Amino acid sequence: MGSDRLVTVTPDLVRDRVKLSSADVEDAKVTDFIQDAEAAIEEETGVSIDYTDCSQAEAAAIKNLAAIYCLVHISGGAASGLSYSIGSLRVAESGPSLSGKAETLYRELERILLRLRQPYVGRA
What we know:
Radius of gyration: 14 Å
Order of helices and strands: HHHEEEH
Largest sheet: 3 strands, antiparallel
Helix content: 40-55%
Number of helices: 4
Number of strands: 3
Mean pLDDT: 78
Number of domains: 1
Distance between the termini: 13 Å
């Protein structure tokens, strides 16, 4: 199955999510965001993750959250865990109300986190 394939999350994969280039956010900064996203997702799910060798679902969650961090970074906003602000837009774990790419990534991240929290529910 595709979810068994191991993936390495790279800065290019993260930037691809939001159509940014290395000129927009350099590799070192994106790698920091990847590591922060990995830690936040581990904390949220209780699952131990290695972004250099993870499942497709884990990689998708890391890429989405790191991409949100990139959007926050280039907009001058702030982020911590699963809460962030982009300009006047504020999103907390309790309930986002936003638009565009960040909302799409956040909604997908929520679905993935639910599955990672309960990895054996509904699976045969």
